[in-house]
What we know:
Elements lengths: L9 H9 L7 H11 L4 E4 L6 H12 L9 E5 L2 H15 L7 E4 L4 H13 L4 E5 H9 L9 E4 L2 H6 L3 H11 L5 E6 L6 H5 L7 E4 L10 E8 L5 H11 L5 E5 L2 H13 L4 E4 L5 H12 L5 E4 L14 E5 L5 H8 L9 E6 L5 H9 L4 E7 L2 E5 L14 H16 L5 H39 L1
Parallel strand pairs: 1-6, 1-7, 2-4, 2-5, 3-4, 5-6, 8-13, 8-14, 9-11, 9-12, 10-11, 12-13
Antiparallel strand pairs: 14-15
Helix pairs in contact: 2-3, 6-8, 15-16
Amino acid sequence: MYFGQLKLKPFILETLKNLKINELTKIQEQVIPYVLNHHSVIVTSRTGSGKTLCYLIPILERINVEEKNTQAIIVVPTKELARQIYSKVNEFQKCCPKLKTLLLIGFGENDMERQKKSLINNPPHIIIGTVVKTLELLQQKAINKNIDILVLDEVDMFIDLGFMSQINKILDIVDTPKLQKIACSATTHESLANQLKNYFKDTKVISTSKTIWANQQVNHNIVYLSDNSNPQKTLFALLKNINPFFCIIFCNTKKEAEEIYKKMKSENKNVALLHKDLLPRQRKNVFEDINKNKYQYLVATDLAARGIDIAGADVVISFGLPEDDQWYMHRIGRIGRYKSNGDAFVIYKNGIDSNINRLNKKGINFYYYQIKDDKLVSKPPLKLRLKQKLVFDNKTNNEIKKIIVTGSKKVVPNYKKKIKTKIAKIKQKLKHEYIEKKIKENLLKKNIERSKNR
């Protein structure tokens, strides 16, 4: 289907033409006509499938630029994502100067009153804001609560970051019978339906695939040295064998990211660094420079893995695997976007065999490569060293279930980490008991054998 078939406002079609966007993606074909008919919806689709336009096009079609009031609010979990969406709306503003949009991502105490006055006296048609700032100004009645459309983008990330209590408060303020609600998520989240069911009653869920683990446009590869002793050495040997247009190297920790960044700088690589401890201005500058094609490489923690559209990225390298398999999918979501293809490499590190095994079971098939004489050589799959799975008794399983149920009801910052810590303690205790039991069994067997030999 082509956008011209939807009979949209001229400025929307003109902007899409300028951006060379003619055809709808699969998810857009299903969602946009449905949302244009004023239906609420929950959209689940892999990263890079075009979810942003699924709600932007209907919002722009519905906005009355002659009215001086806020008609749509888009709430996002991070400043980077807010800026990205704001820049996309700016493209449409070029063809519709009357359209007013506000980026609401933070301000100092001195700017608070000025911001409130601006919202009251000269309200924008669309607000794109982070959770805390949007809620703060709604509570202070600086934003019109009688809006037409509310969008929650990357809604699963709100849950992960412990923002659902603020989201609930926002919905309590703006929820009216006429409100059209749109929630977007790149992953299926166990808590997602439970958190949204009170506000998204009888809402259609639209998804283009049965699984988030499939992306035919990405090749998955695991790279290792013959002795698996030095992951960083493996990484730099791999870099000598590839020449990406733009490559993102994901690390699990800030320390790893900084070490790799410094070494790449020492080798005169055209590289940038991104992690959560950079100042907002520094992070903004990094993204701006990336969009200007100033770098060939970006070393980052998972801050950059969620929702950000980095134009031109064709290679993603994971320096090891994240503990949460969904974060691996967010990483590779930076490539294979729209109609482009990409290559994902995992640098093998001791201890990630179980992670590889889990991803295999979810349908991700890896190709294996070994660095030999500084060359990338195709090899048969590694023989994974998997830990023996402990079988818990009913009492232990019930104890774990109780922790999960109780913890999930109290969505506070780091709640998932606290749940995992409690479960880990229970499992560790059981593991010690299991090892102790095995040692005793082995000693008993040895004693029996000795008795027989006497």
